[in-house]
Amino acid sequence: MSQTCVEVRSEWSIVAARQAGRTIAKEVGFGSVDQARITTAISELARNIYLYAKVGEICIEKVVEANKVGVKVSASDNGPGIKDLRRVMEDGYTTSGGLGAGLPGVKRLMDEFLIDSKEGEGTKIHAVKWLR
Amino acid sequence: MKPSVAKLIETKREIISEDWLKKVEEVRREHHLENISDHVYTNTNKEFVEIILNAVGQGQESCDEQLSGFTERLIQLGWPLSYLTRGLQTFRKVILDTLFEDQEGKGDFEIYYEVESWVDEIVNTLVNEYSGSWENTVFLQKMALKELSAPLIPVFEHISVMPLIGTIDTERAKLIMENLLNGVIEHRSQVVLIDITGVPVVDTMVANHIIQASEAVRLVGADCILVGIRPEIAQTIVNLGIDLSKFPTKSTLKKGIASALEMTQKKIVKIEN
Predict the structure, then answer these.
(1) Using CA atoms, how far apart are residues B160 and B190, in angstroms rounded to an integer?
(2) Burial class (CB in 10 A: 0-12, 13-18, 19+), A93
(3) In chain B, whose CA is at the least distance from the CA of A33?
(4) Which of B18, B54, B95, B268 has an alpha carbon 20 to 30 Å from B163's alpha carbon atom?
(5) Residue pairs spanning A and B at CB distance below 8 A
(6) Number of Cβ atoms within 10 Å of the Cβ of A83
């Protein structure tokens, strides 16, 4: 399956990642609401990379399973990692003075959400949105 | 350049330029320049080879000038830099092949060195010209972007509108805040409408900036109404769990203006005669 990866280094790569996500979401056949959900989720993940890890990568691909298709967004970085996974998934928890809605928001925007992080090693996040 | 090498190149000038013109046709195919007409392509190539070869006789300075003019034109026409660099690589190959063809001392290090530094000089000039023009373009676009960034427009007495279009990054967010607060004081606005119709994605950071901006507007004594929330944006805001209940919001600018007029005890009436 084709996969588009965007290296996140500056604020403008967030826009590039979003753009790539929108293109693939459109190709898969998502409506405008789900397109907005996917691009917003990508925006959150990319911004987290830019804010905390500085450098990382966002990959977007079409996934096909049994009788459904969807878009999978993977974010990975070798940044400082997340200390307390349970807390970052709580609404309103933030270490950067933001709204603290990013990660729990992404979980709600997407259908599947998987996070793996080790302190000092980095963070990996996979999120999938299925086409209904 | 050493006179001996220069003289050697001068004598072979015809052969070199002919050979190069032939080989450069391949470059054309590789770089998708087929849409350029044969006539233009041949003429440009001829001019290019003339300028490079003139550098041998006239010395670097006058050549630099010609080269600058030449590249400037190519940049304006949108020729890729790879055409020039590939062209020069081909040129170096051709020139070395030709010079060594009937030379006794094949692989003469001196000739090789002279040609090498000569071509490198030209490559440097070209790359500088190109990157300079790109930096310039990027700078100008950045300025243009900043200019259309976030104007606050007074539409009625005490009512102003700030239409936001495009991606909001940290720099723009700062500008929005500044323009908003300065504008509110300057125009003595009581109600400010922030229109986000043109903002493609509203994530937590954008929302946070808007919340902060309207909070600041409230502190200077005006009210903020968020307008232009598209249905899909409304859904993502809800999904993200962003609380905008503290702010009055309206779906369109029109409805926002209507309630702003109400808030400032104004009414638009049709004149009857």
Answers:
(1) 8
(2) middle
(3) B232
(4) B268
(5) 67
(6) 11
**Strand, coil or helix: what is A77?**
strand
Taking only residues 87 to 106 of chain A, the set having a beta carbon closer than 8 angstroms to any beta carbon of chain B reads: 91, 98-102, 104-105
Split at pLDDT 50, 70, 90, the class of A132 is confident
Q: Where in chain B is the domain with CATH 1.10.490.10?
A: 3-142
pLDDT of residue B216: 92
Write out chain B residues lying below 8 Å of A96, CB-based.
none
- Which range of residues forms the domain containing residue A65? 3-130
Using a CB-CB cut-off of 8 Å, the residues of chain A touching B235 are 33, 36-37
For residue A16, give the CATH number of its domain.
Answer: 3.30.565.10
Statement: residue B149 has pLDDT above 90: no
CATH topology of domain B153-263: Transcription Regulator spoIIAA (3.30.750)
Query: What is the spatial distance between Cα B242 and Cα B208, in angstroms, rounded to a whole number?
Result: 9
Topology at the third CATH level for domain B3-142: Globin-like (1.10.490)
- DSSP calls for chain B: --HHHHHHHHHTHHHHHHHHHHHHHHHHHHTT-TTS-HHHHHHHHHHHHHHHHHHHHH-HHHHHHHHHHHHHHHHHHT--HHHHHHHHHHHHHHHHHHHHHT-SSTT-HHHHHHHHHHHHHHHHHHHHHHHHHHHHHHHHHHHHHHHTS---EEEETTEEEEEEES---HHHHHHHHHHHHHHHHHTT-SEEEEEEEE-S---HHHHHHHHHHHHHHHHTT-EEEEE---HHHHHHHHHHT---TTS-EESSHHHHHHHHHHHTT--------
Cross-chain residue pair A40–B236, CB shorter than 8 Å = yes
pTM for the model stands at 0.70
Q: What share of chain A is helix, strand, coil (3-state, %, to 5)?
A: 40, 30, 30
Counting the structural domains of chain A, the total is 1
Residue limits of CATH 3.30.750.24 in chain B: 153-263
* ipTM score for this prediction: 0.83
Chain-centroid distance of CA A20 in Å reads 12
pLDDT value of residue B6: 73
pLDDT above 90: percentage of residues in chain B: 26
